[in-house]
Amino acid sequence: MQRAVIVAACVLLAGATIVRLKRGGGPYFQRPATIVDHLGPREHEVHREILALQRAVKTIPRGARVSVIPDDTPHYLTAIALLPDQVVVHGRGDYVIDVR
Amino acid sequence: MRVAYAFAVAVVCVTTAMFWASALGMHWNAWVLLILAVLVACFAWVRAPHPALRATLSRGEREMYLSLLSLSLRERVAEGRVRGARLATIVAFALLTAYGVLTARETCADLLYFWGPKAVRFAAAGGIDLAFLKAPEHFLMHPDYPPLVPLAYAWAAMLAGGFSYWGPLLLTALLLGLTALLVPGRGGVLMAALLAFGYAQALAAGAADPMLIFFEVAALSALTFLDAPLLASIALAGAAMTKVEGAAFAVVAIVAYAIVSRRPLRAIGIAVTPAILLGSSIAFARMHGMIDSYARGTTPLVWSPEALGAIVRSASYHAYYLPWLAVLLPIALAKQLKRAALPLLVAAGSLAYIVFFYMHADANLEFWIAVSAERVLLTPLAALAVAAAAASE
Question: Is the peptide bond before A70 cis (omega within 30 degrees of 0)?
């Protein structure tokens, strides 16, 4: 009996996992552009910022002061994450990346 | 199982070496650390006890294992098939998680907001970057947070020659597989299924939670199935150095072990490694003026029915409480509940400290619970999965 319950639980959990993964939407077998592409039905708040920063990082010189708009916590921390060779500042930097 | 323990011991030893090198002002060398990791992992793999060889077997258990040794060829083949099916199922759940993380469906935002940035800066500096941690604009990254995860990520980045945010995501799938291997029998498969769903639903990939769950299950399994206090002590040290909740888990596990085993001196011995590592980490943070997370004792305790309601709602995992049913039903049907006493007590204790933490006033309590409770509640769920395995062994 216990064995059957464990097997049933594993099958149900596997099904629930697949349903959860499907909620992020397609395409299902393509390499995503960012690590937040399919987290839910809506676009993640920093998705556009990551795309912009991935382009910008190739052109902004090392050590440059960079700021992002909007300047809230998630966008600010994401800029720090993706611009390790630049200095991310609040307010106005030498380079301003607007991702609104 | 021994592979998983070897991995746990190697991670704790390498990150401890990195921490102490930084504390003493020495630069890291990724290759020296790699040699250390390989040596420690090999030593732990050889020395980790096998369930069949543990010293505390009851007479019936010993007879069972002896009878296994005298199995006929046909019975051995059948036994091998069962083990193969178990391993294949665990690998299948790990691959499902690998698909989820590599198609960006399970990422935890904390990877972007602080685990990743810390690792990048630490790898570039060849040590714990104090200037980065102490900068007021980085205060939200919790400068005094236990350093094991960013240290492990930084080491991998140094070996690979750069940091990729996909690395920690893929590590989640590996950790899921290793965590499941720590639990013997069908319980390992249940653990894999539970964590595959839990990590997907809670968006835990890349955060510290998969590492924390790994160490917690390693400690519980070492005490429940192997009676190996040294392994448990190292794993609890890993948990305490991974997240703030890890220290609370270590306290609960050690107290529960003292109660269940009635060996308080042995329990105190288990506490030594976590106490030394966490104590040195807090002392390091205090010395450099970075105390934050560990200085919140003054926040008042406020009993809030709304907070309790939010925790209960999060506990449903938007799946009608399926994870809880999946681990509680096998326990309810078990005939050997005594063997599951330790993980059951730890599950109850971890639920208690989770509610206790959430009952401390915070301006955004509902938001805090909504974004974290599903991940944090994986700890009691994992303890219950170990209990289910112990009760059905």
Answer: yes
Nearest to A34 among B104, B106, B113 (CB): B104
pLDDT tens by residue, B159-192? 999 999 999 999 999 999 999 999 999 999 999 9
Q: What is the mean pLDDT of chain A?
A: 94
The answer to whether the CB of B133 falls within 8 A of the CB of B290 is yes
DSSP three-state, residue A17:
helix
Question: Touching check for B107 and chain A: CB below 8 Å?
Answer: yes
Is residue B46 classed as helix, strand or coil in its secondary structure? helix
Helix B209-221 vs helix B341-358: crossing angle, to nearest 10:
150
Q: CB of A14 within 8 Å of any CB in chain B?
A: yes
CB–CB of B12/B229 below 8 Å?
no
Q: Are the beta carbons of B197 and A35 separated by less than 8 Å?
A: no
B221-274 per-position pLDDT tens digit: 999 999 999 999 999 999 999 999 999 999 999 999 999 999 999 999 999 999
Is the pLDDT assigned to residue B71 strictly greater than 80?
A: no
Do A87 and A94 form a contact (C-beta atoms < 8 A)?
Answer: no
Asked if A78 has any chain B CB less than 8 Å from its own CB, the reply is yes
Least confident of B52-66, B106-120, B367-381: B52-66
For residues B168 and B109, what is the distance between their CA atoms, to the nearest angstrom? 12
- How far apart, in whole angstroms, are the C-alpha atoms of residue B74 and residue B85? 17
CA B3 – CA B5 distance, rounded (Å): 5
Please give the angle made by the CA atoms of B232, B242 and B277, to the nearest 5 degrees: 65
Q: CB neighbours of B230 closer than 8 A, spacing ≥ 6?
A: none
Number of A to B CB contacts under 8 A, please give it.
129
Q: Evaluate the omega torsion of the peptide bond into residue A27 and state whether it is cis, within 30 degrees of 0.
A: yes
Q: How far is A36 from chain B (nearest CA, A)?
A: 5
In single-letter form, the type of residue at position B168 comes to P
Instruction: Please say whether the beta carbons of B41 and B222 come within 8 A.
Output: no
> What is d(CA A23, CA A38) in angstroms, rounded to the nearest whole number?
8
Strand partners, B126: none
Token reading at B161? 């020659």
Q: What is the pLDDT of residues B76-124, one digit of tens each?
A: 788 788 889 999 999 999 999 999 999 999 999 999 999 999 999 999 9
Minimum distance, in Å, between the CA of residue A96 and any CA atom of chain B: 18
* B138 and chain A in contact, CB less than 8 A: yes
pLDDT at B78: 82
Question: Tell me, what's the pLDDT at B363?
Answer: 67
